[in-house]
Structure formats: C-alpha cells, structure tokens
Write a structure and sequence with these properties.
Blueprint lengths: L7 E5 L9 E7 L6 E5 L6 E5 L5 E4 L8 E3 L11 E4 L17 E2 L26 E4 L4 E4 L3 E4 L5 E10 L2 E7 L7 E6 L8 E5 L4 E3 L9 E11 L5 E11 L4 E6 L26 E4 L3 E4 L3 E6 L4 E10 L6 E16 L6 E7 L6 E8 L6 E7 L4 E7 L4 E8 L6 E8 L4 E8 L1
Antiparallel strand pairs: 1-24, 2-24, 3-4, 3-17, 5-6, 5-15, 7-8, 7-11, 9-10, 10-12, 11-12, 12-13, 13-14, 15-16, 17-18, 19-22, 20-21, 22-23, 23-24, 25-26, 26-29, 27-28, 27-30, 30-31
Length: 424
C-alpha cells in the first residue's frame, strides 16, 4: 500500500441529512474471540470465519502483490501458528527446531505485507522477503526457508517457490522431508477478495471473506504494545482492521455529537488505524470504551460514515456495540490553492539514529509541528520549527525510539502530511 495524501475537502453532498441517520450495530468475534467477522458498512452484511480454519494466507490483489500472512487470530482460544525463519538451510535439508531463527509477525499496516515479507529490505522494490523479483522473466522467485509450528505443536518447513502469472507455487513437508506437498494458489479463483486462506490440516484453501465485499474485519491479531515505562512488546489483541480501499481518520478528545469531518484528513496509510485501543480494561469497571473518540471512514463508493464505539463485553462473548452515522458522499476537491504544502519527503526510511524531513511551504505559517506517533496513536516525539515560506529541511533525532513502525506527521494549523516511518 502506498501512502496517499488526501489534500482535499470532504464536500458532503447530503448535508441536509448529516448526523440524522445514526443507528446502533453489534460486532462479534464470538466467545474467546474464536472468529473473525467481516462487515460491510453500506449493507450491514457480516460474515464470520473461524480462526481455527486456516494457518497462512496469500494476498490475491494484482499480479505482483506478494503478501503472505501467518494466522495470529487463534492466540486466545488456542495456540496460534508460529512462523520462523530458517537461515542458512535449504528445503532439501533435514531441519530441527534448533535451526529456527527469529519468530516473524505480520506488521498490520498493509495487506501486501505479512509475516513472510517481514525480512525484506524495504528500500528494494524487488525484495519480497520470501523471494525476489526477477526483472528478466518477471517472476518472484523464492529465496527463503521458513518453519511453521502449528496449533497442535507439530512442525512444517515451507518455501514459496514462485509467484508467476498470478499463481503462487509453494512446497511444504515435515522437518525431515516426509509428507511432501506441492501446492498452487491461483489468484483469479479468489476475485474480489483480499486474501486466500490455506489450512495445513485440510491441505486446501478456503474462501473466508464475503464475495460481495467488506470494509472492516473485527479479529484477533498481534501488535506492539507499550508498558508505562514505554517498553514495547508483542501482545495479542482484539481489534478492527480495514480493507485496502477504505480510508480512515481518528478524531480523539472531541465531542462526538458535534465533531466536524472537514477538520480531518482521511487516509489509507494503515489498516490498523481503528485497531484495538478504542477499548481498554479497567480492573474496577471491566472493559471501558473511549467516550470522546470517533472514527470517520470513507468506503470505496465514497460514502463517509462516523463511527463511535459504545461498549465491549470482553472474551466471554467477544461482542460490542457501535453507532453508525452516514454523513454523505465525499467529493474530492483538490486544495491546490489552499494547502500550504508543495513538497514533502523523509529520508532515510528505514531510519536508525536520525531522519531527515524535507518539505516546501507556499506561504509562511503560524507554526509547523513535526510529530511521530506509534501504531497505537501515542505521540512519542514532537518538535516545532520555523514556518517561513519556501523549502525546509530538518533532522529529527530518533535515537530514543525503539525499533518498529511509526507514523511521522508534519502539521500546520490548516493541513497535515503523514507517512509511515520505520526505525531499525
């Protein structure tokens, strides 16, 4: 997914009906979060898929989108499959668990980048992690060996041989090479969906998503959380991930009844913008929902909705409630005359000790604030700089930031530019 800056005004054509079509709706991942529930905002249609029904999933978008994911969803109701890199070995070798390298996770930022891709060099367009794009034959050819620990404790070794002509070819076997299976997944067989789901237990794929389309999935996944000292760790959470054609903006610390969508920029920078932190657990009250937060969501048909979560009842039912308000149809109106930004770039990305932020302003501004937030929306760094007309270049020290993914924002009183930043 490429970062898109929506420097536009949301002209709501149905202004006379704004904030008048508010309705209550349930969400449910089932008891012990056993399922993922897909939901379409326009029709309220849902479809659930059991986390136990699949192990890995393949991106089917486009001919060269090569995202491959591990199932992190069954981590509450059972043992989730675990993916490990096996360095310095080939598929023909006998493998033992002592050969396993790092455990790999999905980054929950985009549907083209899963755990199998997490070892790639982000500065190389040809590197997919599990393989590399060959410009001479236009195939993505496998270069990595992985091991999977399944929910029942057994292990498989797996390699993705190629992605060519819209078809994945892969092999897996027991660690000693027995029970070899050679499989293929044809993307066109899953038209209109995001992922093709594969189960080692059944040696087959399943169509887990609704064929009519969906806007978000309420599911279980692993993400980076921070303790009170700011120390990061991976933790399984229940939350909402949005489809690749959905744009979202978070409005926090506001009055939900009167908040104005035109003050916010909707982007598709991250599929976990809604995520899990609209709720939290209080040991005296149980699950509580942030009452001064809403999300604005623009779907593929350009309808804009205001979403406010009302309650959540935890693992006993996996259920919650939200309100949905149809605001109207969004019309993109380019703000070439209104936006102060002319150019915007950051480098290097990934960064280590520092990142350079470069941008150009059409006119002097009252202020410019550069901030970095983690994927939970927590601001971890802010810096104000002069806001004169013309080109700006400043260095942001990232020495104190833990390795991981962040969002860097450059904001004036009237506009904001944001992009994904990786720290190594």
């Amino acid at each position: 997914m490429k970062t898109r800056f929506l420097n536009l005004i949301l002209a709501l054509l149905l202004a006379n009906t704004a904030y008048s079509q508010t309705t209550n709706h349930p969400i449910s991942a089932g008891a012990s979060y056993a399922n993922a529930e897909f939901y379409e905002l326009a029709t309220d249609q849902t479809k659930s898929i059991a986390h136990s029904s699949w192990d890995i999933a393949f991106s089917i978008y486009g001919s060269t989108d090569g995202g491959i994911f591990i199932n992190e969803g069954s981590s509450y109701s059972g043992t989730a499959p675990k993916l490990y890199l096996v360095p310095n070995k080939t598929f023909a070798d006998n493998i033992t668990t002592t050969d396993f390298g790092d455990e790999l996770s999905n980054d929950e930022m985009e549907w083209s980048n899963g755990a199998f891709n997490s070892i790639k060099n982000p500065s190389s367009f040809a590197d997919y992690g599990w393989g590399s794009y060959n410009m001479s034959n236009h195939k993505i050819e496998g270069t990595a060996l992985y091991a999977i620990e399944l929910s029942n404790g057994s292990h498989k070794k797996i390699t993705i041989d190629t992605l060519t002509g819209g078809t994945y070819y892969f092999r897996y076997a027991d660690l000693d090479g027995s029970n070899l299976q050679q499989k293929s997944i044809v993307k066109s067989n899953f038209s209109g969906q995001t992922l093709a789901y594969f189960s080692f237990a059944t040696n087959a794929t399943i169509s887990g998503e609704p064929t009519t389309g969906w806007d978000w999935v309420f599911t279980r996944y692993s993400t980076t959380v921070y303790d009170v000292q700011g120390t990061p760790s991976s933790y399984p959470v229940g939350g909402i991930l949005t489809n690749r054609n959905v744009k979202v903006a978070l409005a926090d610390n506001i009055a939900p009844a009167t908040v104005d969508v035109s003050n916010y920029t909707l982007t598709d920078d991250s599929l976990s913008t809604i995520g899990h932190d609209w709720k939290s657990y209080d040991f005296s009250q149980g699950w509580v929902v942030d009452a001064d937060r809403v999300y604005f969501i623009q779907t593929a048909d350009s309808n804009v909705y205001k979403i406010q979560f009302i309650d959540f009842r935890g693992s006993s039912t996996g259920q919650g409630t939200f309100t949905k308000t149809l605001l109207g149809k969004a019309t993109p109106i380019q703000q070439i005359k209104n936006t102060p930004f002319e150019q915007f770039n950051i480098f290097p990305n990934p960064a280590t000790n520092q990142v350079n932020v470069a941008f150009s302003l059409k006119s002097s501004q009252q202020s410019v604030q550069i901030s970095i937030t983690n994927l939970l929306g927590v601001t971890v760094l802010t810096q104000e700089i002069a806001a004169h007309q013309g080109f700006h270049a400043t260095i942001i020290n990232t020495n104190n930031l833990a390795s991981g993914n962040y969002i860097l924002h450059v904001q004036t009183p009237t506009a904001i530019q944001s992009t994904k930043l990786s720290i190594q």
